[in-house]
Amino acid sequence: MGTHTSEATLIDGAAVAAGLHSELRSAVENLVERGLTPGLAVVLVGNDPASSVYVRNKIRRSVEAGLRSFHHELPSTTSETDLLSLIDRLNSAHDVDGILVQLPLPSHIDAQKVTAAIDPAKDVDGFHPMNVGKLSLGGGALVPCTPLGCMLLIKGVRSQLAGLNAVIVGRSNIVGKPLAQLLLRENCTVTVAHSRTEDLPSLCRRADILVAAVGQPELIRGDWIKPGAIVIDVGINRAEHEGRQKLIGDVDFAGARAVAGALTPVPGGVGPMTIACLLRNTIDAACRRHGVSSPIGNS
Ligand SMILES: NC(=O)C1=CN([C@@H]2O[C@H](COP(=O)(O)OP(=O)(O)OC[C@H]3O[C@@H](n4cnc5c(N)ncnc54)[C@H](OP(=O)(O)O)[C@@H]3O)[C@@H](O)[C@H]2O)C=CC1
Ligand SMILES: Nc1nc(=O)c2c([nH]1)NC[C@@H]1CN(c3ccc(C(=O)N[C@@H](CCC(=O)O)C(=O)O)cc3)C=[N+]21
C-alpha cells in the first residue's frame, strides 16, 4: 500500500494541559463560591532533585488553580511509622481532599504499605488497592494521573478507539497496568510488553496506538512504528547535552516523526497532562467527599 510521506501531527500536551488548567480554575472558582475550597496535600520524603522539581510544579499549579495546597517535606531518614502517622493525620484533616505521596520513597519505607494507608477517597494518585480494584472492575475509581493524561491526548486525536491494537511498553503499577485498563475500557485490543518480551520491534509494528513507558532513552526506533500510528511517549530521561540537562523520551523522536500519524514530544507531552489530571482528581475527590455535583466533565 501507499508509502507514508507526511510528518506526524505533534500532540501538544502542554497546550491541552493549559486548556484543562483554565477549565479547572473556573471549576474551583465555582466551588469556592459554594463554600468548598478543594485541598491537596503533597508529601515529599527525602531530597531527590527530580522529585523536588515535580513537587514544586504540582504545588505551583494547584495554587494557580485556586486549590488549597499543603506541603510536607520530610527528611530521607523519616521512619515508616512517622510517615504513616502523618498520613493518618491527613486522612482525618477536613480541609484535605487529596493526598499525594511522591514516589519513589527511600528504600527503608514500604511504598505499598504507605499507599494502602491513604484514605481511598483522598487517593488522587489512584494507587490504593481499592482504586486499583475499582478501575479493573470498571467504575468509580480515582484513576492514576499519567494514564488519564495519556487517554485524554489519545482521544483528542481519535475519539473512537474500538478494535484498535494498542501496545504499551512497560508494566508499572503507575503507568502501564492502569493504562491497559483504560484502553481496554475503550475496546482496544491491548498488549502489555516488558523487559522479557520477545521481538519487541515486531510487536510494536502491529500497534495502532503505541505507548512507551519504559525509562530507556530512545528505545523505540522509527522503524518499529506502524505508519500512521498514534505514539505516546511517557518516558522522561535526563541526559547531558552540550553541558546542559536535557529531557529525552523513550521514543526516537525524529525517527518516529517521519512514520507516525501523531506523536507526543518530551518535554511538553504527557508530563504537563499528569499535573493537570492530578488537580482534576483533587477537585473530583473534593466534590465526592462533600456530596457536591462536580463542575468538571467526567471521563
Ligand atoms: N510523564 C509523566 O508524567 C511520567 C513519566 N514517567 C516516566 O516514564 C518512564 C516509565 O516509568 P514507570 O512506569 O515508573 O517505569 P518503571 O521503571 O516502574 O518500569 C519500567 C517498565 O519498562 C520495562 N522495561 C525496561 N526496559 C525495557 C526494555 N528494554 N524493553 C522492554 N521493556 C522494558 C520494565 O520491564 P520489567 O517489568 O520486566 O522490569 C518495566 O515494566 C520513566 O522514564 C519515568 O520517568 C513516569 C511517570 C509519570
Ligand atoms: N506519587 C506520585 N505520583 C506521580 O504522578 C509521580 C510520582 N509519584 N513520581 C514521579 C512520577 C513522574 N511524574 C511526572 C510529573 C510531571 C512531569 C512533567 O511535568 N514533565 C514536564 C517537564 C518537567 C521538567 O522540566 O523536568 C514535561 O514533560 O514537559 C513529569 C513527570 C509524576 N510522577
From TrEMBL:
Catalysed reactions, semicolon-separated: (6R)-5,10-methylene-5,6,7,8-tetrahydrofolate + NADP(+) = (6R)-5,10-methenyltetrahydrofolate + NADPH; (6R)-5,10-methenyltetrahydrofolate + H2O = (6R)-10-formyltetrahydrofolate + H(+)
Stored InterPro entries: Aminoacid_DH-like_N_sf, NAD(P)-bd_dom_sf, THF_DH/CycHdrlase, THF_DH/CycHdrlase_cat_dom, THF_DH/CycHdrlase_CS, THF_DH/CycHdrlase_NAD-bd_dom
Keywords carried by this UniProt record: Amino-acid biosynthesis, Histidine biosynthesis, Hydrolase, Methionine biosynthesis, Multifunctional enzyme, NADP, One-carbon metabolism, Oxidoreductase, Purine biosynthesis
EC number of this enzyme: 1.5.1.5, 3.5.4.9
Single GO term (MF): methylenetetrahydrofolate dehydrogenase (NADP+) activity
Pfam families attached to this UniProt entry: THF_DHG_CYH, THF_DHG_CYH_C
Pathway entry: One-carbon metabolism; tetrahydrofolate interconversion
Domain Tetrahydrofolate dehydrogenase/cyclohydrolase NAD(P)-binding: 144-289
Keyword ATP-binding appears in the UniProt entry: no
CDD domains: NAD_bind_m-THF_DH_Cyclohyd
Domain Tetrahydrofolate dehydrogenase/cyclohydrolase catalytic: 11-125
Keyword Oxidoreductase attributed: yes
Matching HAMAP family: THF_DHG_CYH
Family of this protein: Belongs to the tetrahydrofolate dehydrogenase/cyclohydrolase family.
Family annotation (PANTHER family): C-1-TETRAHYDROFOLATE SYNTHASE, CYTOPLASMIC, C-1-TETRAHYDROFOLATE SYNTHASE, CYTOPLASMIC-RELATED
Protein's recorded name: Bifunctional protein FolD
Gene name per UniProt: folD
